[in-house]
Design brief:
The structure holds 2 protein chains of 2 kinds.
Chain A (H helix, E strand, L loop, with lengths): L1 H7 L14 H13 L8 E4 L3 E4 L3 H8 L2
Antiparallel strand pairs in A: 1-2
Chain B lengths: L3 H15 L2 E2 L3 H18 L13 H4 L9 H8 L7 E2 L1 H4 L14 H7 L22 E5 L5 E4 L16 E4 L9
Antiparallel strand pairs in B: 1-2, 3-4, 3-5
Classes of the chains: A alpha+beta, B alpha+beta.
Chain lengths: 67, 177
């Protein structure tokens, strides 16, 4: 849903499918998300390296993007 | 290999049995079904499509769909973590659908992280911190017994209403005469 939304809205983004990562990569991502003050859940969206949103909360994503 | 139709049917049957509904948004629902199938093909069990599984059955058993957290989540928020299963209120639009907090204990999430799945499935003691609020309930109509926070919405065996459930209190009183 989130991927489709970002794609259809022409929002530049990169994504990582964490379930397809190696255990080491998973751990790095886990620590990074923890450091940003969130918990590991999907989808997690990081906007401009500062806003972190867990779950497909369209309105929050729009707000953080200034749309 | 299980087909998408099979997984969807399985979920629909389970929802019906427990008095829940599947997500009313067809695209949203389809995404979850695809996720479940992907996990079943990959791990051999359909773990939650919204959570990260380790691939080790013992570590993931609480998040095999329908997960251990579905019932309390539907009870409290009207939907499970993924919103695959929702309550009647949500289907009828009386209650909004929204991302809900994770009920799975952090220690279980941590354990599923960063460790490779073990080849041999071994049983190990898991501290069940989430069990502290769970109680035993029995259906006064058919005798079905369940261990959870609240009595089920509907008896999955005989379809009796929630009101037909009673709590089982286990005592340790020893009477000496």
């Amino acid at each position: 849903m989130t991927k489709a939304y970002l794609r259809d809205s022409d929002i530049a983004h990169e994504y990582i499918d964490v379930d397809k990562c190696t255990p080491e990569e998973r751990e790095t991502i886990h620590q990074d998300i923890k450091k940003r003050g969130s918990r590991l859940a999907f989808p997690t969206i990081i906007i401009d390296d500062k806003t972190i949103i867990t779950g497909f909360k369209k309105d929050e994503i729009k707000k953080a993007l200034g749309l | 290999m299980t087909s998408l139709e099979n997984i969807k049917r399985r979920a629909a049957n389970n929802a019906k049995k427990h008095g829940y509904f599947l997500n009313p948004d067809p695209d949203f629902l389809q995404n979850l079904i695809v996720g479940l199938k992907e996990n079943e093909d990959r791990y051999g069990f359909a773990s939650c499509p919204c959570r990260l599984a380790s691939g080790n059955f013992e570590w993931d058993r609480d998040i095999i769909c329908p997960c251990d957290y579905r019932d309390p989540d539907v009870e409290e928020f009207g939907q499970c973590f993924c919103a695959l299963y929702v309550s009647k209120d949500v289907v009828e639009g009386k209650r909004p659908m929204q991302p809900i907090p994770e009920r799975r204990p952090q220690e279980k999430i941590d354990r599923a992280m960063g460790k490779a799945p073990e080849k041999t499935v071994k049983s190990e003691a898991v501290s069940e911190t989430s069990d502290t609020n769970r109680k035993l309930f029995y259906c006064k109509v058919c005798g079905y017994v369940t261990f959870r926070e609240e009595p089920p919405h509907k008896c999955p065996i005989c379809q009796a209403k929630q009101e037909m459930f009673g709590e089982i209190v286990l005592g340790t009183d020893i009477q000496v005469r």
